[in-house]
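Example 3.2
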Amino acid sequence: MRNRFHSRRALLVCAVLAVSAAVIVTAPLAAGRAGGDSSRKSVTVRLMDATGAAAGKVKLRQQGSRVVVRAQVKGLTPGFHGFHVHDVGECVPPFTSAGGHYNPAGTGHGEHAGDMPSLLVLDDGTAQLQFATDRFTLAELLEGDGSAIMVHALPDNFANIPTRYQSTTEGVLGPDSATLATGDAGGRVACGVVG
């Protein structure tokens, strides 16, 4: 009777150990499949232009409830350029593979979580920008299919078009659908995957 009790106890211990080992082994795999490591505190995003040439880098660092963004870009035309987080972590020229602006709340442009301050590019083609945001976390940008940092060809108007102006493309007063979606920032000239 006693041997039978010890045998059952040994089987129970083995079963518990096997289940525990399976949980320990598969938990990191599941997290990896979900699209990112939520414990990461910083990421460096390498930007490339449509030819595949390096166009700078953007560092994202989680600091408490905010993300500090530091951008250094090169090889761009002088002037202001729209600068956004886009929905999909893929940068295949002409970079439409990155989807639209990161906008989990479904708000209008200027209020998208991925709307960031514009880059001011100097005459030598370089720009630097640093700011903090609490509109997204690094973990959010890494989850699922990831996200991308995008530099646009034109300035971003953040949909600041007074209603007294009429769209020439849609016959509506105020901003048209392109302005509301993208801020008229134009083509996509540099992209980098957040990851």
